[in-house]
Specification:
Number of strands: 19
Distance between the termini: 54 Å
Length: 507
Amino acid sequence: MLFDELAATAVAVGTTRSRLAKVDVLATFLRALAPDEIVPAVGLVLGRPRQGKVGVGWRGLAATLEAAADAPMLTIADVDAAFSGLAEASGPGSAARRAAVLGELLSAATERERDALRGALLGEVRTGALEGVLADAIARASDRPVATVRRAAMLSGDLASTALVALTGTAEDLANTGLVVGRAIQPMLASTAPSIADAIAAVGEASVEYKLDGARIQVHRSGDDVRIFTRNLADITHRLPEVVEVVRRMPVHDVVLDGETLALDENDAPRPFQDTMARFGAETARDIALRPWFFDVLHLDGQDLIDEPLTVRLEALAGIASDHRVPGEITADADAAERIGREALAAGHEGVMVKGVESLYAAGRRGASWIKVKPVHTLDLVVLAVEPGSGRRSGLLSNIHLGALDAAGEFGPPGGFVMVGKTFKGMTDETLAWQTAHFPTIEVRRDPYVLWVEPVTVVEVAIDGVQRSSRYPGGIALRFARVKGYRPDKEPHEADTIQTLRGMLRG
């Protein structure tokens, strides 16, 4: 199949709001794929190539940008092969090899295909083809029950391989997809609530647990073989030998655990999130040790527990990992839950998780029975630059660069601005239209991927916190920034300062 058909599908999906229409478009596309095209095609539609990150950023794209092809000629196999070439380039001369592969790929692509390629390469596909929509489309294209497709995807941890089984295998092949110790499954996710009382009102009796400011881990053990996966299902066992040893000491043979790992200081208080992430991402052991904390068990010595209520799973967890359980209590009382929330914050954690005691483990889904509650900070920052959108946002200015006021002149003349992050989240269609019209009127300079603007536009953003970062000159970066709205009533000198943001660092 020509890659242009995938690009056209992405455009069609991204330009409709109707879920049914998205499913129809995707199902038609899936039916036309050859068996060996299914896995790479699904990854590209989702903006998650099967090769993972291939080491190409917007600078690499800009450096290789030449005239686009007049007519489509690339196939899905061509694109998949090029992504493999990019991923495999390493060692001396790899930058030149990567540039050559990327240049050849882009020169053979039309403008529409380039848009799809940019989204996949930069991880910024925003076509509206969420996994749930694509799962429904796989079910329709294969004439399999939606529930069966969803469960297979959750337990296999891979929607692309599920699509292959659904579209080329039997109904029994798909139904037999189950939890396998050693194979990561998609983690259950949580909804949010503005307060603990609201969360208790929504779920009733609940396990109210500390929400740790750590990194999500899923741990599988079979005998002495232990494997550790991230929330994105990457295998990082070799990075966390201390966690491996903790799990090996548990009185079990086979187990699948869900939890978090984080670094503690000498007083057993959580170290800053960036310390945890720096250690979490290390290829070899560092001085900072990570301690695991578990809040769920999904399999125990031959018995799957994902379809058991939370109370059963917590009882099983207490029997094997009592020293490594996330602190919490079961209660239906809002005042007691609020007390636990205060204790969590006082201990340096993010907030609490409120989980209905009868909830099952909805792998891969954002369940209404798991609710996170944590303080939200809002900041007034200044837009320094903006990037063109892709997918549904093609033709619009989308991702904004955010700057904090440098009132003290630590990083330049007093009154300047220091970049602290980017975001494209939280923007309504009206917001996108407004900024697309507004920012070119205050343009300073541009290249193919960034439009720099005068630092005069104040925007209010919500964040979950800040973390240390060497990426930005101020040494910090925003965590989970999303736009609340532009503030034409405020002047740039009223923006929050880099000094204020640095003061928000814990530790």
